[in-house]
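C-alpha cells please, single chain.
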Amino acid sequence: MGRLKETLARPGLAAIAEFKRRSPSAGDIDPSADPARHAQAYARGGAAAMSVLVDERFAGSWDDLRAARAATELPLLAKGFFSTPQHLRTAREAGADAALLILRDLDDAAAGSLMAAAAELGLDALVEAHDRSELDRAIRLGADPIGLNARDLGTFAIDRRAQLGLVSEAPRDRLVIAESAVHSRAQAAAAELAGADAVLVGTALMRAADPAQKLHDLLARPLVKVCGLTRDEDVAVAAEAGADMLGFVLAKESPRRAAAVLHVPDTTLSVAVLVGELEETGADLTQLYAREDGHRARDAVLLRDGEAVAQVLDLPWGEPDDGHWRRAAEAEGRVMLAGRLDAGNVREAIERVRPWAVDASSRLEREPGIKDHDAVRAYVEAAR
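Here you go.
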C-alpha cells in the first residue's frame, strides 16, 4: 500500500489539501502563492495529504511539487493531465507519492498501462471519474483509490448531488475521494455520509486568509444542528451563525411543526424530522423517530437516502444519572447528541460524549417554532 492509500485508509474523514494558483473555471486565485508555505499550513491544519497542480493552465509547475516536497512530510499527489509513463517518472522524481489519472482523457488500455507504470514506480494512482460510465470503468480497471469529481471538466459545471450519488454507489472496498466543490463543513460531511473516505479541497483553502484554520474548521467535529425551524428569517440567522445542519419538524403532533422543509444555503444540510413513517420531503437527511404507545420515542436514527448514517441520542439533561452520559460515550458509530441543549450546557456535553454532532431546538426559542436569535448564535458559538 502506497503512502497516500495508507493515510486515507485511517478511520474518519480525511482531507487532501490542494495547491493551485489559478483554475480555468475561477481564473486567478492567488498568483503569488508559495507551495512551501501552503504545505506547512496544510500540515498544521490536519491534512492527510497535499495535492499540487503542476500544469501551466493552473499556473503550476514541477518546481511547485519539488518545493512542497522539501517543506513537508505529507504524502504528495501530483495533479495534471498525465498521459505517458514519462509524466509519471517526472512526478516520482519530483517527490510525488501519487499521481492523478483522468479517465475522461484516457481509454481503458491507456489507463491500465499508466496504472501499471505507476505501480512500478511506487506511485499510487488516483483514478478520477465524473459520471456513472467512468465510475464503472474505474471499478473494472481495479482502481483504488477512486476520485469522484463534482466538476465537469468540459463545461466546468458543478453537480454536487450527482457526485454524492456516485460516491454512495462506489464499492466500499475501495478508497473513495470526493473532489471539488467543498467550501463548508456541511459539504464535507455530506461526502462523508455518502461514503467518501476523503475530500479534496482546493479553492476554499487557496482563498482563505488562514488556510490551516480553514482546513481545521472543515474537518472539526461536532457538527452543529439547529432544529425546530419554521421561518426563513430563523434559517438565515442559524446559517449565518455557523450551523451545519438545519432541522424542520414535520410531525403533526409537534408544537414546532413546519409546513415544509424550507430552502437552506448550499453550505448547510437540511434535515427533515419525522415520527413513525418515512416520507419524501426533499431534505438532505431524515431524522426518524419511532412511535411508541402513541408518542415519539426518545432516540432516533439519521438517514441518508433511507440508509442509517448516525444515531440520535436524546439525553435527559439535568437528571442525576451518569449512566446516560456513559451510554452515549460508549455508543458505536456516529452519534448526534440531543436533549435540551443550549449555550450553557453544550460544551460539557461535547467534552463528556465527544459526539459527531449536537442538536438543539426548544432551548433556543422565544415560543414554539420561533427562535431567539441571540440564543441561536450563542449556542452555535459555544458548540463550535
